[in-house]
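Q: Please design a sequence for this.
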């Protein structure tokens, strides 16, 4: 049996997170299948009842995909409540290159990515700078407060 992995992120503003995470991961919004103009049009054509589609659902892409086809699909599921509490699962964006790369270079790669993501709407939670352990990482929050690390 074949299995694929999809990451689902609950959110209140689907469009905002599609834009942010497309930038963060280098992904692209997933186009609707079968030549449909929108996902809503696709869902309606496949028989999803209108009452199951919240206002605005599927009018813009709600998922992003890796254009190279390597990473998992990410779906942003609209929910009515805002995030509450600490994440029990988070993403690590591993941009430094690993311990075989000198710490100064890894730190610069992390810093460059963090600056780009702050410009896209992320906020800094904390920085872990432990040169004696050869470690540098930054914990960020996406525009809805979901934490993730840049390492």
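A: Design:
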């Amino acid at each position: 049996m074949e299995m694929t992995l999809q990451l689902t992120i609950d959110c209140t503003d689907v469009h905002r997170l599609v834009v942010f995470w497309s930038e963060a991961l280098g992904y692209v919004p997933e186009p609707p299948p079968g030549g449909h103009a929108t996902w809503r049009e696709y869902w309606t054509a496949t028989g999803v009842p209108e009452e199951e589609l919240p206002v605005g659902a599927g009018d813009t892409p709600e998922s992003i995909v890796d254009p190279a086809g390597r990473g998992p699909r990410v779906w942003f599921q609209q929910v009515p409540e805002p995030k509450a509490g600490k994440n029990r699962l988070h993403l690590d964006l591993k941009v430094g290159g690993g311990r075989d790369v000198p710490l100064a270079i890894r730190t610069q790669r992390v810093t460059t990515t963090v600056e780009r993501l702050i410009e896209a709407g992320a906020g800094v939670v904390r920085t872990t700078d432990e040169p004696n352990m050869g470690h540098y990482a930054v914990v960020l929050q996406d525009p809805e407060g979901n934490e993730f690390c840049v390492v």
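Q: Thanks. Anything notable?
A: The chain has a mean pLDDT of 93. The first helix runs from residue 14 to 25.
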